[in-house]
């Protein structure tokens, strides 16, 4: 079955796994080579998560990253270079490119490989009655956005990565006359404290993100819980 045949698509917002290009805020606790290893595990676990909900999978990435990602990920994962630069342009591109025909598209960050599958199911279900669905992070951001159509002007580049990112997004949806709802609150891995939290959770539930769990367990065993 091709991407065009699916009525639900999960778009992973990702970059090529290169040192200094991904998860740079973890550099203070991880050597650069390990940051790249970790990022690869995050994305591979996120692809596996997408398969659990029967969604077709796409990766939306910066223009210069596409060839590396194509060589890395399975062949059934569509890799789509975004227009413009930055996350706001990436998200806009995801819905512009993938909502044809109109259908449920959920754009997910690559920093939450531990999400329960039922969160994605809930997001796709919400799109049967709402224009938009958002996944709130506990830091004021968001880990997913879902829509069935592209909506020009929805994403504000200035708000991305701030503590008010979700509030700004919800407010803009309202100004555009779009209905929306939210899924369960979770967290993504941006800073060392997030990584430590993820390590503790995966120690108890490694099946939530098995590649990431195995990597963190290996590092913790070898370096006395320092990554």
Protein model, in words:
- The protein has 227 residues and is α/β, with parallel strands linked by helices.
- It has one domain: Alpha-Beta Complex (Spore Coat Polysaccharide Biosynthesis Protein SpsA, Chain A), CATH 3.90.550.10.
- 39% of the residues lie in helices and 16% in strands.
- The chain has 7 helices and 7 strands, in the order βαβαβαβαββαβαα.
- The protein has helices at 32-51, 66-72, 86-98, 117-126, 165-175, 192-204, 210-223, and strands at residues 8-13, 56-61, 78-81, 104-109, 132-136, 142-147, 180-182.
- The chain has a 7-stranded mixed sheet with strand order 3-2-1-4-6-5-7, with helices on both faces.
- It is globular.
Which key features would you list for this structure?
seven-stranded mixed sheet; Spore Coat Polysaccharide Biosynthesis Protein SpsA, Chain A; 7 strands; alpha/beta; 227 residues
Topology:
Elements: E1 8-13, H1 32-51, E2 56-61, H2 66-72, E3 78-81, H3 86-98, E4 104-109, H4 117-126, E5 132-136, E6 142-147, H5 165-175, E7 180-182, H6 192-204, H7 210-223
Parallel strand pairs: 1-2, 1-4, 2-3, 5-7
Antiparallel strand pairs: 4-6, 5-6
Helix pairs in contact: 1-7
């Amino acid at each position: 079955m091709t991407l065009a045949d699916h009525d639900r698509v999960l778009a992973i917002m990702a970059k090529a796994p290169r040192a200094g290009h991904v998860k740079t805020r973890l550099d203070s606790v991880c050597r650069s080579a390990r940051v790249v290893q970790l990022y690869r595990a995050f994305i591979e676990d996120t692809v596996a998560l997408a398969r659990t909900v029967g969604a077709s999978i796409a990766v939306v990435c910066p223009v210069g990253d596409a060839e590396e990602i194509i060589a890395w990920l399975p062949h059934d994962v569509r890799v789509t270079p975004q227009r413009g630069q930055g996350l706001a342009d990436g998200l806009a591109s995801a819905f512009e490119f993938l909502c044809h025909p109109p259908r449920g598209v959920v754009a997910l960050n690559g920093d939450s490989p531990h999400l329960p599958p039922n969160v994605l199911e809930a997001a796709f279900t919400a799109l049967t009655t709402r224009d938009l669905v958002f996944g709130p992070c506990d830091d004021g951001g968001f880990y997913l956005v879902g829509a069935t159509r592209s909506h020009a002007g929805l994403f504000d580049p200035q708000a991305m990565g701030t503590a008010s990112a979700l509030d700004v997004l919800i407010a803009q949806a309202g100004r555009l006359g779009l209905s929306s709802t939210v899924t369960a609150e979770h967290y993504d891995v941006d800073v060392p404290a997030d990584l430590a939290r993820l390590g503790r959770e995966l120690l108890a539930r490694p099946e939530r993100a098995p590649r990431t769990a195995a990597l963190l367990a290996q590092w913790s065993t070898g370096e006395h819980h320092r990554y």
